[in-house]
Amino acid sequence: MTQAHLHLVITHLPIFGSIIGALVLGFGIWTKSIQTQKAAYLVFVLSAIGAGMAYLTGEAAEETVENVLGVSENIIKQHEEFAMYALVSCIVLGVSSLIALFVTFKKTAFSKTAATITILISLISFSLVAWTGYLGGQIRHTEITNGPVQNNAAGEKEGKDDD
Q1: What's residue 158's pLDDT?
Q2: CB of 28 closer than 8 Å to CB of 98
Q3: Residue 133 region, left (φ>0) first, then alpha (ψ -120 to 50), else beta?
Q4: Is 107 helix (H, G, I), strand (E, B) or coil?
Q5: SS3 label, residue 31
Q6: Terminal CA-CA length for the chain
Q7: 153 band by pLDDT with thresholds 50, 70 and 90
Q8: Alpha-carbon distance 21 to 27, whole Å?
Q9: How would you class 1 by CB atoms within 10 Å of its CB: exposed for 0-12, middle for 13-18, buried for 19 or more?
Q10: By three-state DSSP, how is residue 33 classified?
Q11: pTM of the model
């Protein structure tokens, strides 16, 4: 498995981890389940680790596709620049989750506030990593940018058959 392949696989972890973690944490807050809240914090920490891995493998993925016909350097640059914001948000989410996990284990009065702050950070983080993923998807998924690319030879043949 190349770093480019690893990048494509791992990029989904912070996207889904941040939203699933938010749902789990929200459920844990609603049901007052400390165990469920702890599980959500661990999901957030894994998401932050995944974001770091995705960021670190991004350069190799760029080198793999930058010379492929039809790949826009501008879209790669947008994805790369926005990925830094997503990475920072995931790191903040991971640190917040570790703090929330610690205060939850210690059973302090701050644990409810920590849970609320963490769920808000997770929603912000989700929006940033989801947008970064969307920008990354535009690099090779033409169906989300201009529609499918048609091969000239196939298009000409189809046009002749219709006449």
Answers
A1: 42
A2: no
A3: alpha
A4: coil
A5: helix
A6: 47
A7: very low
A8: 10
A9: exposed
A10: coil
A11: 0.81
Give me the sign of the Cα torsion angle 92, 94, 97, 99: negative
Structural contact between residues 115 and 102, judged by C-beta atoms closer than 8 angstroms: no
The DSSP line for 58-104 is HHHHHHHHTTSTT--HHHHHHHHHHHHHHHHHHHHHHHHHHHHHHHH
Q: Which two tokens stand for residue 1?
A: 């498995």
Q: Residue 139's CB: how many other CB atoms inside 10 A?
A: 21
- Of how many residues is the chain composed? 163
Other beta carbons within 10 angstroms of residue 102's beta carbon come to 14
Place of tokens 């790669």: 76
- The identity of residue 126, as a single letter, is F
| Nearest-angstrom CA–CA distance, 113 and 74 | 41
Separation CA 104–CA 151 (nearest Å): 58
